[in-house]
Fold:
Amino acid sequence: MRSFLGRDILSLKDFERHDYMRIFQVGEELEPYARDRQNGELLMDKTLVTAFYQPSTRTRLSTEAAMHRLGGHVVGFSDPRMTRAGDFYQESIKDTVRMLEYYGDVIAMRHFQQGAPHEAAKWSTVPVINCGDGWGEHPTQVLIDMFTIWREMGTLDGLHFLLVGDMRMRTMHSIGYAMSKFDISATFVAPPEMSLTEEFKEELLSVNLVFDEAETTEEAIADADVIYMEPVVQADYTRSRVEVEEDRGLTPAAYRVTREMLRDRAKSDAIVLHSLPRMDELPTDVDDTRHARYWVEAYNGVVIRMALLALILGAAE
Amino acid sequence: MRSFLGRDILSLKDFERHDYMRIFQVGEELEPYARDRQNGELLMDKTLVTAFYQPSTRTRLSTEAAMHRLGGHVVGFSDPRMTRAGDFYQESIKDTVRMLEYYGDVIAMRHFQQGAPHEAAKWSTVPVINCGDGWGEHPTQVLIDMFTIWREMGTLDGLHFLLVGDMRMRTMHSIGYAMSKFDISATFVAPPEMSLTEEFKEELLSVNLVFDEAETTEEAIADADVIYMEPVVQADYTRSRVEVEEDRGLTPAAYRVTREMLRDRAKSDAIVLHSLPRMDELPTDVDDTRHARYWVEAYNGVVIRMALLALILGAAE
Amino acid sequence: MRSFLGRDILSLKDFERHDYMRIFQVGEELEPYARDRQNGELLMDKTLVTAFYQPSTRTRLSTEAAMHRLGGHVVGFSDPRMTRAGDFYQESIKDTVRMLEYYGDVIAMRHFQQGAPHEAAKWSTVPVINCGDGWGEHPTQVLIDMFTIWREMGTLDGLHFLLVGDMRMRTMHSIGYAMSKFDISATFVAPPEMSLTEEFKEELLSVNLVFDEAETTEEAIADADVIYMEPVVQADYTRSRVEVEEDRGLTPAAYRVTREMLRDRAKSDAIVLHSLPRMDELPTDVDDTRHARYWVEAYNGVVIRMALLALILGAAE
Structure:
C-alpha cells in the first residue's frame, strides 16, 4: 500500500478506497485533539507553509487550525497582495516554490490557475497540498465531505448522490473521482450553462460511474441519500452589500433545496452537505432540520486536515 | 462569584467591582511573562481565533502577543479582504461563527457592526471577546485603561475623570459603564455633534453616575485626576498622507490637551490616557511630561489580555 | 569583541570581519534545524514582531521561518493595509514602536522610508532588524549573500565582483559596505540613470574599496568571480499581468546575464547571485548551469536569519 509520507495531495483521481479509509482512520485517532480542544505536540517540530493566491477562509483557517492542534508552526501568505503586490503574478511558480520549500515542511497552496499546485509539486522538495486550483480540483474539501458522509451514513457504498449547482466547480471534479471509487450513483442538476463538460462526462463514464442528469432538484430529490450543493449564483465582490442583497433570491427554484422540499419529497434520512459560504440556494430554515450536516463539516475539516498533515509529515502511518 | 471560565466578554455593563479586581490580580500574577520577556507554557494547548472585520493594530497585535506570551497558538484573519473578499459581508455571523468555533478555543472579534460579537456569542460554543463593535463597546480597551489608572493612582475610588473627544465612540460607552461601578465622577467635553446621546445619558443617570458636561477642556481640566482622550478629527484613509497632513491641526483648541494647559491648570498628579493612534489633539510635547501614561497602556494591554485569556480558558481562576 | 546580544541590525557600515564570521559560524551551528527540517526549542520563549510597511515575500517569510525553526512565536503585520488602514502612515514611528516593543522581543521592520528602522531603534527597548528601508540598506539580505559566497567559494578574500543592475537599490548600498571589509574589488554596470550616486562613490572610495564602472555586462564578465544582480526593469504592480508581460524583454542586453555569455566569457567557476524575484535580466535557462547560486540563497536565508535571531536574543553568543 502506497504510503502517505511525503506524498503530494493534488487530485483525488489516484485515490484508492484504502487511501480514503486510511485517512479516515487516522482522523478518528487524532480527533480527540479537536473534540477535547487540546493542542498536542505531534507536529511541534514542523512548519506548514500556506501559499494562498486567492482569498479563502474555511480552507486556509481549517488547515492552519489543524496544524496548530498538532502543535505545529505556520508561515505563509493569505493573499498575494500581502506579498510584493503582484510579484507572484509575474514570478513563475518554480521561482516561488524554490523559495517556499525552505520555509517549512509542507506547502498548502490555493491558486487561481488550474494546475498550479501540480507545477509547484514538480519543483518542490517538500510535499504540496492542493487547496483548490481554479476550475481544477479541491481534494481536501472532498475528503472532508466523504468523511462526513461516512460518519453520518455509516458507509460510502450503496448510496445515491444528488449533486446540485455549478458543475464546473473544482469540488464537483474531485467528488466525481471520489464517487467512482465507491458503490455510489449520482444525479446532477445544474443550469445548462453550468452543466458537466462533455470531457468530464467522458471521464466519469470511463471509470464506470453510474449517473444521470435531471432538470430540477425537486424531481430528483426523492432518490437521494446525499444532497451535495454548490451555489449557482456566485458572490460578486465588486459590488456593495446592499447591491448584492438586492440581487439575492436570484437562484432559480430548480437549483435550491428548501425545508418544504425536504419534508415533502426527500428520504427521511437524506443528508444535505454544502461547503459554504452559501447564497440563497440553501435557506437558513433548513439549518435546524435533521437533514443539515454542513455545520459538522467545519469540525470534520480540522479532523481530516490533522490526519493529512500527520500522514504526509510522518507523524502517523 | 461568577467564574470567568468560558465567559463571553461582550460589554462592561455587567462587570462588577470584583470582576475588575479579579482580572487586575491575575494580570499582576502573569505580569512576569511580559516584564521578563519570557513566553510561558500556560496556554500552549490552546488556540486563539482572531476575527477582525476591520483593520486594527493595537488591539489585534496586543491580543495575539498576550496569547503568544502564554505559549498559545493563533489563527484568524486581520482584514476581511484577506478572506474570500467580501464573503464575510455577505455571510451571516452565524454561518461564519459555526465554522470559526472549531478552529480554536476562544474568538476575539472586531466588527464594524454594533452587536456583531453578541450575535457571534449566541451561536458559538467557545467564548467570544468583543474587541470593538462599531459604535458599541470596547470592553478590553477599557479594562486596560482602568488597570492603568488603578496602578498609577493606587485606587479607582474618589477620582474625577475628564473625558474629551467623540462621545459616540465605543470606548466612551465602555468607560461610562466602568466609571459607574466605582466612586468616580465625570466631566464630558465634546463637540456638539459628537456629544453623549440622550439615550446613553439616560443610561448613565440610571446607574447613578455623577457627571456634567463642559464646553472646553481648559475650563474643566483643573478638577481632573484622569484625563481620558479620544480624537475628534478622525483619520481619513481615503486620502494621501500629504492631503491628510495639510488637514492636520484641525482639532479645535477646546478638544485638545496641551503641555501648557497641563502645567498651568491641571492637578500636579493628573494623568493623561489616550488609546492611540492620535491626531493633533494630543501634541507630542506632552509625551515627556509626568502626566503622560499612554505609553504604559501598550504594556498593560498585554498584561490584561493575558489575564483575560487565562481566566476565560481556565488556566487561572 | 562587540556582542550581538540586544544589538540593532540597521546597517552593514559598522560590521567588522569578525561580525560576519561570528554570524556565519552560528549559522553553521544552527543549520541542522534547516537541513533536517526539525524545529527546535531554542527561542520557544521569545516572540518576533514583524512590522512590514511594504509587501515582501522572501524577507518576511524567511525571517518568520527562521523564528519558527527555533521554536519561537511571531506576531505582526505584513502590510499596513491590514492595520487601521493608513494609520501607520499618519502615526509617527515613535508612537508605533512604543506599542510594538511590548508585543515581542525583537522587531523586524521593512519600511518605504529610508532611516525608518533607525528611528524605530531610537525609541525601542527591544532590538530592531532593518529588513529593507527605502533606498537605504538591506543588511540581512547581504549577510545572506556574503554567507552564500563564503560557502560556495570558500573565502571572501581575493575575489572580484561584477555588480549589475540599479545601483540605487538598498542591497547595492549594503554590499558596498560589505565588500569594503574584505579583499574584494568590484566592477559596477548600470544604466546611466541608475548608476552609483556621487555621494556613495565618495563613501566607497573613502573606505578604500577598489572599483571601476563598465558599460556592459559582456565586457566586464570575464574577470568576475561573483556576478551579483538586481533588476533594472522594476515590476509594475499597477498594471495587469498581460500588460506587464507585453513589456517583458525590455531589459537592455547590457544589463542581462545569459547562458551564452556565461559559457563563452565567464570564468568557469564564476557564480551568479540574484535576490529574486527576477524580471528578464536573468533568463531561466541559466538556472541549470553550474553558475547559478540563487536557489541556495533561500535556504541560506533561513540559516543566517536563525543565527541573527539567536545571537540578538541571547540564545547563541
Summary: The longest helix of chain B spans residues 17-35. Strands of chain B lie at 47-52, 73-77, 106-111, 128-133, 159-164, 184-189, 210-214, 226-229, 271-274. Residues 84-88 of chain B have pLDDT under 50 and may be disordered.
